[in-house]
Amino acid sequence: MMAALHVTRAEQLIDVLGGSTLVARKLRLRQSTVAEMKRRKSIPLFHWPKFLKLAADAGIELDYERLVQMHIRRKRKLGTHAAALPIEAPVAAVN
Description:
Elements: H1 10-16, H2 20-27, H3 31-40, H4 48-57, H5 64-78
């Protein structure tokens, strides 16, 4: 049975999963890497599958939709509106 926790922020997720040191050990990352995720309040997308597995193993309900919402929330707070664009929106080439 999954725990019905309403995790809405990346730093909250890291805390719920046991904190920076424990998460780093379980994900085989440096503690400073996870601490930086927590400080920046953002989990890089390429780490999402690892966090999903870790949450499932801990019995915490987490899915891609929740991670996307955390990511969008962070971008909006920074004033970056690109995160609000539909996924299928074309991206202009940078020359």
